[in-house]
Amino acid sequence: MIYSFDSLVETLRSHCNNVKHRIWICSPFIGCIKDVLRIIGGSWKRNDIDFRVITDIETGFIRQDTFDDFIKNHPNSIRTLKSLHAKIYIVDDWCLVSSANLTGTAFSKRYEIGTDDVNISEVETFFNSLWENKKTKLVTSWSKGKKQSQIEFEDGGVGYDKLTNLPTYSARMGKMDKYLARCSKYKAFAKNYEKITGRCRDMVDDGFTLLQEVDYLFNYLEHVVCVSKELTKVQQRTESTRNSLIKKYFKEISTHYEQNRNYELRRINSTKLVKKLTSPSRIKTISAKEVRTVLDTFNCFGLGRDMHGHASNFIKKNSLSDIRYHWDALLNHGDITSEKVNECCKLRHCSDSSVSELIAWRFPDKYPIMNTCSKKGLWFFGIDG
């Protein structure tokens, strides 16, 4: 297939939005983060994505805001190779070979072309040969490269007329991409927790998923022993210290759970309830009363207390047909993506936190509850969540 104009950027963005395991990019010129996000979205921020970038910081450039964002989410992901000219975008098992650099100018103001009619294994081999080339260097600090006037010409607002519009990338999309990125860090922590502890057998026997057990740990740190409650930033921890803390508090939560077992089974009951009411066979006929039952499981609504009237307003201000449609689209039609979450958040009085809880209760083995408590829990163990 040959792509140009709208189809070039829209096809690339679509594949990047739905990435499963890797995004590899070759581009000698890489533009500002605002345009980069409109071209490739923000799914690359997840730490379960193998993200690699080859650029040319000597005769090309990477804008500093983009460099900082790439490195923040994926340390050691950028390498530079002088005289690089290839433009390659590998997303999972799909590949685009193009004339277009990763800049807003290239994808919206230049006459560019690209094709995915390639042998991906051959392109992958070529990419790896560049990545491992002895002249290719790891980049850990940003440098300007070209003169600013040349950067402006390649990535600025001068020089060319607009040929096509870049896809939108809203603040809410960015927020949800950050949410999915934090989820991936949470899940990486959970795997390490499981490896170290072997899990609490009582929780396993009662049906807790791994992510629900870690959520229990974070709630214990926040509300019982209060060691994470007042944190305002991530704590510096060595791997050894982190693992020792996991072992210490695993013992404590195992005892605490045994003493409060009957009350804590509400988590399992909430999961079963939400799974049942939002399943493909039920969601299309869910009643307003059942919607309220789902909302009453949410921590952000006060576990049924609806202290600020958010649940009541949600039901009053949205039609039942809209709620059914958006919840069904989010939960029952493929993977969770930032775009789908963004669409669901168009429901009135629908917050990011309530959507994340809906996802977590429905898919407790895949998605954690992401809130202030979980963020501080990760901070306590030295992870910037």
Quick recap:
The chain has helices spanning 5-17, 33-40, 64-73, 104-109, 120-131, 148-155, 171-197, 201-206, 210-224, 239-259, 261-264, 266-277, 288-295, 310-317, 320-331, 338-344, 352-362, 372-380, and strands at 2-4, 22-26, 29-30, 50-55, 61-62, 78-80, 88-91, 94-98, 113-115, 137-138. By secondary structure, the protein is of the alpha/beta class.
Question: How is the topology of this model organized?
Answer:
Layout: E1 2-4, H1 5-17, E2 22-26, E3 29-30, H2 33-40, E4 50-55, E5 61-62, H3 64-73, E6 78-80, E7 88-91, E8 94-98, H4 104-109, E9 113-115, H5 120-131, E10 137-138, H6 148-155, H7 171-197, H8 201-206, H9 210-224, H10 239-259, H11 261-264, H12 266-277, H13 288-295, H14 310-317, H15 320-331, H16 338-344, H17 352-362, H18 372-380
Parallel strand pairs: 2-4, 3-5, 4-6
Antiparallel strand pairs: 1-9, 2-7, 6-10, 7-8, 8-9
Features:
385 residues, alpha/beta, Endonuclease, Chain A, 2 domains, 8-stranded mixed β-sheet, two-stranded parallel ribbon, 18 helices, 10 strands, 51% helix, globular
Number of structural units classed as domains? 2
Query: Approximately how much helix is present in the residues?
Result: 40-55%
Any low-confidence stretches, pLDDT <50, length ≥5?
Answer: none
- Please provide the count of β strands: 10
Radius of gyration: 23 Å
**Judging from the principal axes of the Cα atoms, what is the shape?**
globular
